[in-house]
Automatic annotation (TrEMBL):
<feature type="domain" description="Glycosyltransferase 2-like">
    <location>
        <begin position="8"/>
        <end position="177"/>
    </location>
</feature>
<keyword id="KW-0812">Transmembrane</keyword>
<dbReference type="InterPro" id="IPR001173">
    <property type="entry name" value="Glyco_trans_2-like"/>
</dbReference>
<dbReference type="InterPro" id="IPR029044">
    <property type="entry name" value="Nucleotide-diphossugar_trans"/>
</dbReference>
<keyword id="KW-1133">Transmembrane helix</keyword>
<protein>
    <submittedName>
        <fullName>Glycosyltransferase family 2 protein</fullName>
    </submittedName>
</protein>
<feature type="transmembrane region" description="Helical">
    <location>
        <begin position="300"/>
        <end position="321"/>
    </location>
</feature>
<feature type="transmembrane region" description="Helical">
    <location>
        <begin position="276"/>
        <end position="293"/>
    </location>
</feature>
<dbReference type="Pfam" id="PF00535">
    <property type="entry name" value="Glycos_transf_2"/>
</dbReference>
<keyword id="KW-0472">Membrane</keyword>
């Protein structure tokens, strides 16, 4: 496929620490990208993100910088499609500013899209970290204990799936379902995948096309990220009347039981068995990670796991009960 038929979109918001490495990994690894449109949609960055993108655009004229006043990535990708996708464009590639892309990433995605006839091709993320905390978080998130066995988190098998890390779309299929829901700040990818499936489109996970995803550098940042992930997933469940999967229910049930048993343990000490068992598991994960990584920073793996599980669960339950309460008003 001619590179001129490909539109690449990178949503950003305060990504000065990562945007140059991200864009250069795309540009340097893709021979045909000189003919493609590479659009950075920025949600109002207050750091040096925009300055960096403008500097790169002076050397690489295929780069465009566009304002995204709605701030959400979902709205930004839609805006780029509306403004830049013309009759010559047939493929939409969405890239993440926190990721580093492998050589020939664009060509391989477009080839797989054509070979499979899928509406979307998704990829596997291999987590990495730039701080001691982030390296421990990266180790645990790519295990079944950290991500619940999600196929696009460190998986090794290719095949048709319900959801994965968004990479390439047949642009016609993307437009036919209305693009992303621009009101979603998180989980907009899974929500779109639901509509793609409802329209008869298929999603292909290619485990041979992998990218490095940089984890949040602090516990607070990771907790906030997963809180938002949980809220977004709850919105998707509510919007489409879905039944959450077991791996999604378990963190929510565990979090609710932890809260109830911690509070109830003040009156019935036997209830403290569950919180003690959970935190013993967290401690064991930390020790195991430190041994496997041969680095004391691995001790952050347990707290990282707890932040991901409980941040996601708290956000999910907060959104579910909030939506239920609002529906009764």
């Amino acid at each position: 496929m001619d590179g001129a038929s490909v539109l690449v979109v990178v949503p950003t918001l305060n990504e000065a620490a990562h945007i140059e490495a991200c864009l250069m990994s795309i540009l340097e690894g893709t021979v045909s990208l000189s003919k493609s449109s590479l659009v950075v949609v920025d949600g109002g960055s207050q750091d040096k993100t925009r300055k960096i993108v403008r500097r790169l655009a002076e050397r690489h004229p295929q780069i465009s910088l566009v304002d995204n006043p709605d701030r959400f990535q979902s709205a930004g990708v839609n805006r780029a499609v509306e403004r830049f996708a013309g009759p010559k464009h047939h493929v939409l590639i969405r890239c993440d500013a926190h990721a580093i892309y492998p050589p020939d990433y664009i060509e391989r995605l477009t080839a797989r899209l054509m070979q499979t006839g899928a509406a979307s091709v998704v990829t596997v993320m291999d987590a990495t970290g730039e701080t001691p905390f982030a390296r421990a978080a990266a180790w645990i998130v790519d295990t079944p204990l950290g991500s619940g066995g999600s196929a696009h988190r460190g998986g090794a098998d290719s095949g048709f799936v319900d959801h994965g890390h968004h990479a390439a779309f047949d642009l016609s299929a993307f437009r036919d379902v209305g693009g992303y829901d621009p009101t979603f700040s998180h989980n907009e990818d899974a929500e779109l995948d639901v509509r793609l499936a409802q329209s008869g489109g298929k999603i292909w996970l290619d485990a041979t096309i992998r990218l490095d995803y940089v984890m949040r550098p602090t516990l607070r940042g990771l907790l906030r990220q997963y809180w938002n992930y949980g809220k977004g997933r709850a919105r998707t469940v509510g919007k489409h009347s879905l039944h959450p999967r077991l791996r999604q229910l378990l963190p929510a049930v565990n979090f609710a039981l932890l809260v109830l048993t911690v509070l109830g343990g003040m009156f019935f000490p036997l209830l403290w068995v569950l919180p003690i068992a959970y935190f013993a598991t967290v401690a064991a994960v930390s020790v195991l990670a430190a041994v496997r990584l041969r680095d004391p920073s691995g001790l952050w793996a347990g707290p990282s796991m707890a932040a991901m599980h409980n941040g996601w669960a708290a956000g999910f339950l907060f959104q579910i009960f909030g939506d239920f309460y609002r529906s009764k008003l």
